[in-house]
Design a protein that fits this description.
The complex is a heterodimer of chains A (about 550) and B (about 675). Chain A has about 550 residues and is of the alpha+beta class. Chain A has a four-stranded antiparallel sheet with strand order 3-6-5-4. In chain A, strands 1-2 form a two-stranded antiparallel sheet. In chain A, a hairpin with a 4-residue loop joins strand 1 and strand 2. In chain A, helix 13 runs parallel beside helix 15, helix 14 packs across helix 22 and helix 17 runs antiparallel to helix 20. The two termini of chain A are about 45 Å apart. Chain B has 27 helices and four strands. Chain B is mainly α and about 675 residues long. In chain B, a hairpin with a 4-residue loop joins strand 1 and strand 2. The model of chain B has no long low-confidence stretch (mean pLDDT about 85). The chains are: A alpha+beta (about 550), B mainly alpha (about 675). At the A-B interface, helix 7, helix 12, helix 14, helix 16 and helix 18 of A face strand 1, helix 5, helix 7, helix 24 and helix 26 of B.
């Protein structure tokens, strides 16, 4: 019997196989759409469930034994964070499929790759087992390599190789971490002490069990004992945080080594300055739909990895590194914004705006406040919506003009009013205008950092500068593309956005407005998970 | 209906109207439907005002939770007190009037159907700022006000820059200088307005952060950004000695107040962020009439009045000096502008400065009421002036050069006399509205100066000189357009008053320029302290001097054939050039911020990040890419290094016995060293 979350993994894989077997040009599109809509439905259902019944527990859990001796299971389940990301993954993939509709070379192969990518991304978001997480994490690279390197622009090989090598180098370290964790654990497992607050946050049966493990607790004691078996269950690994801090690996503290390994893998994906230069190349060379997937979902893997692995498993290292990470986030916010301001290629411009926006995810998480952590995840979701919209719009204009030089446009409001208005909405969402979703994440991340300890208020104060910079690079772009007199006479005949393009954009616009005006469901779904995470991390201090 | 529910209706009616009229195809229908809705909103707002002003009470309207974040919450809700009820009424009245006028003003504009919905959205955002009961909602609506102005300023989106515009080049005046023509277009003006506002908004956001921290430090929770909470926070004795980054709760409150004022500097176009407002004249004149009167620039003054309890005497001194400097600076520029709309724009900047001078006097000296009173009286007068300016520009086919107009009073009598009334009201002529509000501002400011002495005299002196110039440049404006002879007969040949509907819309505003009890004072209980008498004498003398001077230079002397204005400009050349060049502030901003900190730094960052365009073009062939330092190039260098290492490794694989022995020896040494060190 396969549960809903497992279907999110299995269905895209099966559909991908069908795509490859079918010799049809039409069916693969519908199959890709079906796969992504299935993910969207399941993610949406889970997200609504968490919005209505908030909780830090994992739902829709399922575990299939994989290798019992090794302690590895095909275990899936989502909390609020995972549900939000799964929803995003389904939505963005669906939009990307519509964008590519009838515009892809060899549809069978293309959509099979997209479905593979979807399965891998979903795997990361629903994994409850570190091994599943790692395999999915690496599996994301496999379809991305041909999607950029075969289906991309003239310099696609350079861009694909750079992307592949960069992200692989980042994640190899994660494999070493994974093996190290296993190797230092006794075969019989170990008993760990767990504070009652953790049990209260995560236990779904009043404290009898925690993450499927029986809790041994004398009455009224603030500390309980849980025996954790050897294995890769992420929640069990998090319970052993103190053990990792005490263990040694190759002369290092295992926690220090493991945290840095995960941090490197995630910062490359986010991407954080100075590890970001693969992103502009990949975006510029990738076809529109792949750019949408890259910006909309793939960058979020890095953020999610920090929330799901780095913070829970190595809390004291997280506290130690948070100020540094805050500085990295700030540098990314400002560097990305300035670099975006200096670009002429529209795609590269949007890519750098992503670098800037993703900095807020890091800032929020690093601030070590619940508000900031919620803000970081909200920012991840809303940036997925707004950057996807921007990339679709760049694709629209590229299809007509066959170039992306911002200086080569002007006055498109006259021939393409729908395009121009949508571009304005997307730009304003990127600039963090209240009423559109981009504002919520930025605001919460900043408020979190303001109220945080140490240097964070100063970092937040400087990061506020991005309010000016984002308005400048976004609206300057709108001005150069859509306003002013028509620059080239041949642009006057450009057709406005057609139904396919509108179908790919309007859902994003609607969500940007709805989440901008009423973010409570999303925030309520994320809040318990973020608060429990923060409690877990701060518990490591004692 | 309860007052609270009424406030929600007043707020949402423009929003719903915006959606409805956005769907209408007929521009005329959309204008009149929107105007009717605004009129209804105005009546509702007025009934609300009658309730709260009579009792002098504040009513908390409905309040809903927006986000619950654990340690604090963010909410949306309304607060109706005399200040917000009166302001909401003014906003709705002016909105209805401007919409009726605009139906005529844009009757042959193909884009006209876009105006009503953008306008109604703008009004709804402003009503949000006015009626909001907490700082968070105020900030959201504040930003949306910025969006509204962005859309309306860029209304004629495909108009070319002034430097490429033959109409502009043929119509521009002799004295045209100081303006950066290649940047003077609706598309650039809207960008400039939004980004410069964002500079202030960044400060606003910092202020919110400081207030949030101060509240949490004082051990508060719940909706800590509600105005009622902030007021009690400011009045409460500091609890404990908790500090944050070495800042006590009270200094954080001070920081919060200054942050909020930074937002007000941006939105209310105060020095040094004032340069966006004159450029915003690129929008339709009717849009200017609402932006300058009620919806955009008023927001800053209103916000400071709303957050008044947070402002300590020191913070108010900053407010006062900023307002005073702006008042005088803008007035000096207004005196020498050739463009009839630019004079009005700098006049607005100057009057806003005066309002801040009033506010800065402090509650004890009646400063808050004085500043608000001037905000209200100025709103009607300035809205009327812009409508008249729109009528004139329409009548003379877009010419805005004061040197070429003249003598229009005969062809446009309604416009001429209506605008004269507005000019006199703005100048502070007795029995007109501005007389009382300006007197109140000067009286409050003088009272504060006498009480505090020292630096507190600055705002008063600056505002007094500014008032003197106000009388002069406003009279110059009116005399140049309507008085004297027709200087360009061809230009004014077809000039006529606007259509009856538009003329009625103008005339509706006339009673509001009179000093009737219901325009000022009575509702707001402006305090008339001991300085009232001296201030009134001062205001009247300033008006008399400025008015007589302007009458002599621009009416009597030209009628006798003397060019006194020209002689003055020659003799005071340096001053004249400085004023005409806008004191160089526009250029400075352009050079330091737009180009320097903006474009140059951005280009440098982009270059340092990915390298030059040549490098990017050559990336096909990694080996032959130009050798230059960039972040991305370093990554490639590292990759190339690893590749060479790999090549070396392949030699290692094929190597002989010596290689292996050497390698084993090195490895063993390293291992021993590592082991020994541990």
């Amino acid at each position: 019997m396969i549960g809903p979350l497992l279907w999110c993994l299995v269905a895209p894989l099966l559909l991908a196989a069908v795509c490859l077997l079918l010799r049809s040009a039409v069916w693969p599109r519908w199959l890709a759409l079906a796969g992504s809509l299935l993910t969207l439905a399941i993610g949406g259902y889970a997200l609504l469930d968490f919005a209505q019944h908030p909780g830090a527990d994992f739902r829709l859990q399922q575990s299939l034994a994989w290798s019992p001796d090794f302690g590895a299971n095909l275990a899936v389940g989502v909390d609020g964070m995972g549900a939000a990301m799964l929803f995003l993954s389904g939505l963005v993939t669906a939009m990307a499929t519509i964008v590519a509709w009838r515009h892809e070379r060899s549809p069978g192969t293309y959509h099979a790759l997209v479905l593979l990518l979807l399965a891998a991304m979903n795997g990361v978001f629903v994994a409850l087992d570190l091994l599943v997480f790692y395999v999915s994490w690496e599996a994301v690279l496999l379809p991305m390599l041909p999607l950029v390197g075969v289906f991309g622009g003239p310099q696609r090989r350079y861009a694909a190789l750079k992307f592949f090598a960069y992200t692989l180098a980042g994640s190899v370290t994660m494999l070493a971490m994974l093996l190290a964790l296993w190797s230092v654990t006794p075969a019989a497992g170990r008993s760990v002490l767990v504070p009652a607050s953790t049990i209260a946050a995560y236990s779904i049966d009043g404290g009898a069990t925690l993450h499927g493990l029986p809790v041994l607790r004398t009455a009224d004691s603030p500390i309980a004992t849980v025996h954790v078996p050897r294995g890769f269950d992420l929640r069990h690994l998090a319970l052993q945080a103190n053990a990792w801090a005490d263990a040694r690996f190759l002369g290092w503290s295992l926690a220090a080594f493991g945290f840095l390994a995960v941090l490197l893998a995630c910062l490359v994906k986010v991407p954080a300055v100075p590890l970001h230069t693969w992103l502009p190349h990949a975006h510029v060379q990738a076809p529109t739909a792949v750019s949408v997937l890259l910006a909309g979902v793939l960058l979020k893997l890095g953020v999610y990895g920090l929330y799901r692995v780095a913070w829970p498993l190595f809390p004291s290292q997280a506290i130690e590194w948070a100020p540094t990470l805050g500085v990295i986030a700030l540098v990314g916010i400002l560097w990305g914004a300035y670099a975006a301001l200096g670009q002429r290629d529209l795609k590269r411009l949007v890519a750098y705006s992503s670098v800037s926006h993703m900095g807020f995810c890091l800032l929020g998480l690093a601030s070590m406040t619940a508000v900031g952590a919620i803000g970081g995840l909200v920012q991840a979701v809303t940036h997925g919506l707004s950057s996807s919209l921007l990339f679709v719009l760049v694709g629209v204009v590229y299809d007509r003009a066959h170039h992306r030089d911002v200086a080569g446009f002007g006055g498109l409001m006259r021939p393409m009013p729908r395009f121009a208005w949508l571009l304005l909405v997307a730009a304003l969402a990127g600039a963090g205008l209240p009423g559109l979703a981009g504002f919520v994440g930025e605001l919460l991340a900043l408020l979190g950092a303001f109220t945080a300890k140490g240097s964070f208020p100063w970092l937040a104060a400087i990061a506020t500068l991005s309010v000016v910079l984002s308005a400048a690079y976004m609206l300057w772009t709108v001005k150069r593309v859509a306003f002013g007199p028509l620059r080239h006479a041949e642009h006057a005949t450009f057709p406005d956005c057609d139904r396919r393009e509108l179908a790919a954009m309007l859902p994003l616009v609607v969500l940007l407005v709805v989440l901008g005006c009423w973010p409570a469901p999303l925030v309520n779904a994320l809040r318990p998970a973020c608060e429990a995470l923060l409690m877990h991390v701060q518990g490591a201090l004692r | 209906m309860s007052t609270g529910a009424l406030s929600v209706v007043v707020w949402l009616l423009p929003l719903v109207t915006a959606v409805v009229v956005g769907c209408l195809r007929s521009a005329k229908l959309a204008h009149y439907a929107a105007a009717a809705a605004m009129a209804v909103a105005a009546v509702l707002a007025a009934s609300m005002a009658v309730t709260v002003v009579g009792g002098g009470v504040a009513v908390q309207g409905p309040h809903a939770l927006w986000l619950d974040l654990g340690s604090f919450t963010l909410g949306v809700g309304t607060l109706i007190d005399p200040m917000s009820a009166v302001m909401a009424t003014i906003v709705c009245v002016l909105a209805a009037v401007v919409l009726v006028f605009n139906a005529w003003y844009m009757h042959d504009d193909p884009l006209a159907a876009r105006f009503p919905w953008q306008f109604c959205g703008f009004v709804a955002a402003m009503l949000g700022v006015v009626l909001s009961d907490n700082l968070f909602l105020t900030f959201c609506c504040w930003e949306l006000v910025g969006l509204g102005s962005y859309l309306l300023i860029g209304f004629w989106f495909d108009k070319p820059a002034a430097s490429d515009d033959p109409d502009y080049q043929s119509n521009k005046g002799r004295g045209a200088r100081g303006v950066l023509e290649h940047q003077l277009s609706p598309a650039h003006a809207q960008l400039k307005a939004f980004v410069m506002n964002r500079v202030g908004d960044a400060g606003f956001l910092l202020g919110i952060g400081a207030l949030l921290v101060a509240s949490l430090l004082a051990g508060r929770s719940g909706d800590v950004l509600a105005f009622s909470q902030l007021a009690t926070l400011a009045s409460a004795e500091p609890v404990g000695t908790a500090t944050f980054l070495g800042l006590s709760a009270s200094s954080l409150l001070g920081l919060g107040a200054l942050g909020i004022f930074a937002g007000a500097i941006g939105k209310s176009a105060q020095f040094p962020l004032h340069t966006w407002l004159p450029d915003a004249m690129q929008g339709p004149t009717t849009a200017s009439s609402i932006i300058h009167a009620a919806t955009m620039v008023a927001a800053g003054v209103f916000l400071v009045a709303r957050c008044y309890p947070l402002f300590s005497p020191d913070a108010l001194l900053v407010v006062g000096w900023t307002g005073g400097i702006t008042c005088l600076l803008a007035a000096s520029i207004a005196c020498v502008q050739w463009d009839l709309k630019a004079v009005l724009a700098y006049s607005t900047v100057s009057q806003l400065g005066l309002m801040f001078v009033g506010l800065a006097a402090g509650a004890a000296h009646g400063g808050r009421d004085a500043g608000l009173a001037h905000l209200f009286t100025h709103a009607f007068a300035k809205c009327l002036l812009f409508l008249c300016a729109g009528a004139v520009i329409h009548a003379v086919h877009g010419c805005q050069d004061l040197h070429r107009l003249g003598g229009l009073r005969k062809r446009m009598p309604i416009t001429a006399w209506a605008s004269l009334l507005a000019v006199l009201a703005l100048g502070g002529f007795p029995l007109l509205s501005g007389f009382f509000s300006k007197d109140a501002v000067l009286a409050a400011s003088l009272s504060a100066a006498l009480a505090d002495g020292g630096a507190a005299y600055g705002p008063f002196v600056l505002a007094s000189v500014g008032s003197l110039l106000t009388a002069a440049y406003m009279l110059r404006w009116w005399l140049s357009i309507f008085a004297g002879r027709e200087r360009d007969a061809e230009l004014v040949h077809h000039a006529h008053d606007p259509s009856p509907a538009a003329a009625i819309a103008m005339c509706v505003l006339l009673p509001f320029t009179l000093a009737l009890p219901w325009t000022i004072g009575d509702w707001l209980h402006v305090q008339h302290g001991e300085t009232h008498g001296p201030a009134m004498v001062l205001a009247l003398s300033l008006l008399a001097i400025g008015g007589v001077f302007a009458g002599w230079v621009f009416w009597w002397a030209p009628s006798k054939g003397h060019d006194v204005a020209g002689a003055l400009a020659t003799n005071l050349r340096r001053l004249h050039v400085a004023c005409s060049e806008l004191w160089g502030i526009d250029r400075l901003w352009d050079r330091v911020f737009t180009r320097g900190l903006g474009q140059t730094l951005a280009k440098a960052t982009a270059r340092l990040d990915l390298g030059s365009a040549e490098r990017l073009a050559a990336l096909q062939d990694v080996a032959n890419a130009p050798d230059e330092v960039s972040l991305d190039g370093l990554v490639d260098d590292a990759a190339r290094g690893a590749w060479r290492l790999g090549r070396a490794g392949s030699w290692f694989h094929g190597g002989g016995l010596t290689v292996y022995v050497t390698a084993a020896f090195v490895l063993a040494t390293v291992a021993a060293l590592v082991g020994a060190l541990q």
